[in-house]
Design goal:
The structure holds 2 protein chains of 2 kinds. In chain A, about 25% of the residues lie in helices and about 25% in strands. By secondary structure, chain A is of the alpha+beta class. Chain A folds into 2 domains: about 55 residues; about 180 residues, no CATH class. In chain A, the strands form 2 sheets. A 5-stranded antiparallel β-sheet of chain A has the order 1-3-8-5-6, with no helix packed on it. In chain A, a hairpin with a 5-residue loop joins strand 5 and strand 6. In chain A, helix 1 runs antiparallel to helix 3. By secondary structure, chain B is α+β, with helices and mostly antiparallel strands. The chains are: A alpha+beta, B alpha+beta.
Chain lengths: ~250, ~180
């Protein structure tokens, strides 16, 4: 009888573990398949033309604070934090070759944030190891097209403290931040930096997720999955611990 | 036997807890840290590279014994191996020998005279960039004319000249003033 119970418990735990792993896989699969950037060559970018990012989606006004009073496009469908592709903003990575002193390249990124309350969106470029030489001179200017506010202008390597922008709203809303990133080389850059390479990953993040709300409608699958996985794991862990304790007690007696 | 089973159970329990803890940690991070990223942003700088006559000298030692009134023309080339058009200038360095102040040099691009003067007048700090740029991948042919003027008189046997012919290039992009 005891053996039978043990077998049942083990079977249940195994099933739970499998479910957990499957759910985790689903979570990561969803994250990395829906937001994978397209690798394209960047050319013919223009400054000032991309402020109109109107799409076919419904828009509504946002209630923003001083730091984000500029007109911010909002939509009714979004994840909590996502890159949103529009007709003019493709969120494509930089692919710049043959840069010379004085050259610059501009890319635009549209970050969509679903929030209810103050939320600070941080931008940080992560330079990969082995590209330190060009990092000594490569500069970037991070600005928000929504407000024209320049968040950072300087060496890309010095942007270790993220470029921050705070959004505020009293009600559940989905805001879009239009980042204009200009990467450039000063005209004074010398011969030492000829034929050098730099690879960086750009990241937008919200570390304090308290005010991040689920989108009003639609894609909250990830949240549900996360909650489900945690619940299942907690249950499995508790069951395992109780079962072990019981076993130990029985062995002692 | 009983101890063996107990140890086995404890081990499997620890492993299970470890796996579950990792899963819990991963999902917790996923909940408290929201991030999106654009990976693999690539930046590559260009380079300016010139090939001057494959590094070969335009005139060899003991090739000619200069006499008053003598003219010698030698050809050489300059190739732009850069990925962009470049402004260039040709000049002489490491100049030595008594003939340096007497030998007249003319550098020609076809029929166009690029530089003319005594070899000591054609050093890096005295010559300007050529008027036109050399395109990426272009190979341009030049002639260099050595003239020993008649009025210089017979050179003593030990008189000679040595020099290094140099080419310097700079990108035309963002450089309207041809600054080297």
């Amino acid at each position: 009888m005891k053996k039978k119970t043990e077998r049942i418990v083990i079977a249940v735990l195994s099933v739970l573990l499998v479910i957990c792993l499957a759910l985790l896989f689903l979570v990561f699969w969803q994250r990395y398949t829906t937001k994978k950037p397209v690798h394209t060559e960047v050319s013919g970018n223009q400054i000032g033309e991309d402020s109109d990012v109107s799409s076919d989606e419904t828009t509504m006004p946002t209630d923003t604070d001083e730091t984000s009073r500029a007109p911010t496009t909002t939509t009714t469908t979004a994840s909590r934090l996502s890159l949103h592709r529009t007709k003019t903003v493709h969120n494509a990575p930089f692919f710049v070759k043959n840069m010379f002193p004085g050259d610059f390249e501009i890319n635009h990124y549209c970050v969509r944030v679903s929030h209810n309350g103050p939320v600070t969106v941080e931008f940080i470029p992560k330079i990969r190891d082995g590209y330190e030489v060009l990092a000594e001179v490569l500069k970037c200017r991070i600005s928000l097209q929504n407000s024209g506010k320049v968040l950072y202008d300087g060496l890309i390597a010095d942007l270790t403290d993220p470029a921050k922008h705070t959004l505020n709203s009293d009600k559940q809303t989905v805001a879009e931040l239009l980042y204009e990133i200009t990467v450039y080389l000063d005209e004074s850059v010398g011969n030492r930096y000829q034929n050098k390479e730099l690879v960086a990953d750009f990241e937008w993040r919200v570390t304090d997720t308290e005010s991040l709300g689920p989108p009003e409608t639609g894609q909250n699958l990830r949240l549900i999955l996360n909650a489900a996985v945690i619940s299942v794991l907690v249950f499995a862990l508790t069951t395992l611990l109780i079962w072990r304790k019981r076993n130990e007690k029985q062995e002692c007696s | 036997m009983k101890n063996k089973n107990a140890a086995k159970k404890v081990t499997s329990g620890i492993i299970a807890i470890f796996v579950l803890a990792i899963c819990l940690f991963a999902t917790t991070i996923a909940l408290v840290w929201e991030a999106v990223s654009v990976k693999d942003n690539l930046f590559i700088t260009g380079r300016v590279k010139l090939n001057l006559n494959d590094g070969k000298p335009v005139i060899q030692e003991n090739e000619y014994l200069f006499e008053p009134g003598m003219r010698v023309a030698k050809d050489f080339f300059l190739e732009n191996l850069s990925g962009c058009p470049v402004y260039y200038r040709l000049y002489f360095s490491d100049i030595g020998g008594g003939l340096a102040d007497e030998l007249e040099i003319t550098v020609l691009n076809g029929d166009t005279v690029l530089y003319s003067g005594k070899i000591t007048e054609l050093t890096k700090d005295k010559v300007a960039a050529a008027d036109d740029a050399i395109e990426a991948g272009e190979r341009r042919e030049f002639s260099i004319l050595f003239h020993y003027p008649k009025e210089s008189g017979n050179p003593p046997a030990e008189k000679h000249v040595t020099f290094t012919l140099c080419a310097e290039g700079v990108q035309t992009i963002n450089n309207p003033d041809k600054l080297f």
